[in-house]
Amino acid sequence: MSPEWCGLPAGVRTLEQAEAYWASGDPQVLDRIRQALGKIEVPRMTNVRRCGRWGAEGDEVSQERVWSGQLETAWRTTARVNVAAPTRVRIVADVGAHGIVRAEDLAWRGAAALALADALCAAGYTVSIEAVYCNKSEATDNLRRLSLTVKDWTAPLSLTTLAATIGTASWFRMGFLTLCYTVSEWRESVGGSYHNNVTEDIMRELYGDEPNVTRLLVPASVLSAPSAQVWLTQIAKALEAQAHPAA
What we know:
The protein is α/β, with parallel strands linked by helices. The protein folds into 2 domains: 3-45 and 85-243, no CATH class; 50-80, no CATH class. It contains 9 helices and 8 strands. The strands form 2 sheets. Strands 4, 5, 6, 7 and 8 form a 5-stranded mixed β-sheet that branches. α2 runs antiparallel to α6 (159-165), α3 packs across α5 (107-122) and α5 runs parallel beside α9. The longest helix is centred in the last third of the chain and has 19 residues, at 225-243. It is elongated. The protein starts with a helix and ends with a helix.
């Protein structure tokens, strides 16, 4: 298990060293995510914040507009845009990958999750981000799941945390194997397991039924600029369709 395959610097070989690395953040990983952000475009989202409209009646009056004769637009009303979809969005990033996937290619998932979260927050959505890894034992077919909250609903987004969990392979390639050696029931997975894609059923098991939350999965297939762009475009269209369903 080489540091390069894990997505770690050459000198990081123990879990303690990896934890210090994750906490401080790797400038190369952060730069990789920033560069990736410059190569993808996020479609604009419908703003769901409360916004003001001017008219002939409302909650507040502008004396300046009255004095200037703009009586038809002198009153201001503040209201939230009426959208059909929930305004709370949980972004779930599948951080796993098969062994042949290069560690640096996972930066695209980090960039995609960050770009979407930024766009949603700017549009007034409340966003959380979860990093999830699933692994299945070849011997028993048991499914192991690891979940980590990268951004809670009310917390600001930390680029360092995102880079250490979603932007690199080190969290699941070193962290999961360490758990396998530590937890006796998981030792069967060492040397005989494979990545299992995160599914809607797995998300339901982890987070339950969330009728007032839209769950969005960053899939394991996001490994390049084109795949990240396709995913972001599809997600933006789906959100717009939910917000403004056809009559």
